[in-house]
Amino acid sequence: MSKPRILTPAGASFTVAGGGYDLEMEALERLGAEIVECPATEADFIAAVGDADAIYAKGMRLSAPMIQAAKKAKLIACATVGVDYVDVVAATECGIPVTNCPDTFIEEVADHAMMLLLATHRRCIEQDRMVREGRWAEGRPQLLQVPRLMGQTLGFVAFGRVARLVALRAKAFGLRLMAYDPFVDELTMSALGVVPASLDEVLSQSDFVSMHAPATPETGHMLTTKHFARMKPNAIFINTGRGPTVDEAALIAALEEKRIAGAGLDVFEVEPAKPGNPLLAMPHVILSPHNASASARFDEARKRRAGQELALVLSGRWPMSCVNPTVLPGSGLRRWQPYAMERGPNS
């Protein structure tokens, strides 16, 4: 029996290059699997993927032709929360599950979102500059215009794993919580002290709006000019989700015209942010380079998780975190072995 072959694009990563695949292989070694790199171009990938048993995606865009060329692949494993660099529709049509790491570093993202909220509210960067530039006397007068945090309203647009952890943190600061998410039931929200609401209610009533929607074809430019127009003039917009879910030009206009008060952004519509982006020059906007999930455990945790998902599928089991669940065991798709069908999706 031949060794399972896992194809991955060389050098495609968000973190430090190199380092090998020792962490992924902790789960794969018993299967005799091997991870093979190919040049990170569409043509080279298509030429190499035909006999691959699985694909380890690392940030390189996987297009429909690349996925359709994967005639044997049983899985596309992503070591990230977002999978917007994979054509999930094409993978589903080909009967290939796509997995992600939805719960591996959500604590870090929730911490980051809360940090952006607190730092923008208390004008942290501006206050720091006042001290450094000898403008000591300006600090207190600025904060005398800032309302007390306790009792203000934090509204969530989408209420997934990260938003729920942010809600736990925000509750300790005395914030009133509300959320819009048509895919989350009211009991889940109310159990965390969060009031279910419409999108309009969240935008119009919140002092802080925290965006958590994933990047999908349906959520592109989910928030536009008309949505920012519904927000309070004192409102602060936080986004630790995905940049393309927001019409960035509309956000910039709302900030420039003072229709909202400020923003804390970890993500942008185009990344890296271009030097001429007006957001870079705005005093009451705090930015970070799409690193909310980063911590000392980031690489180790995500690499181990990707290896575990690959090992599960290559041994005939169902993965832990499938983002295209319509690809189900027992559905007649050619990629699944009888063992997986017998065990079911929760095994």
UniProtKB/TrEMBL annotation:
<dbReference type="InterPro" id="IPR043322">
    <property type="entry name" value="CtBP"/>
</dbReference>
<dbReference type="InterPro" id="IPR006140">
    <property type="entry name" value="D-isomer_DH_NAD-bd"/>
</dbReference>
<dbReference type="InterPro" id="IPR050223">
    <property type="entry name" value="D-isomer_2-hydroxyacid_DH"/>
</dbReference>
<dbReference type="InterPro" id="IPR036291">
    <property type="entry name" value="NAD(P)-bd_dom_sf"/>
</dbReference>
<protein>
    <submittedName>
        <fullName>C-terminal binding protein</fullName>
    </submittedName>
</protein>
<feature type="domain" description="D-isomer specific 2-hydroxyacid dehydrogenase NAD-binding">
    <location>
        <begin position="114"/>
        <end position="292"/>
    </location>
</feature>
<keyword id="KW-0560">Oxidoreductase</keyword>
<dbReference type="Pfam" id="PF02826">
    <property type="entry name" value="2-Hacid_dh_C"/>
</dbReference>
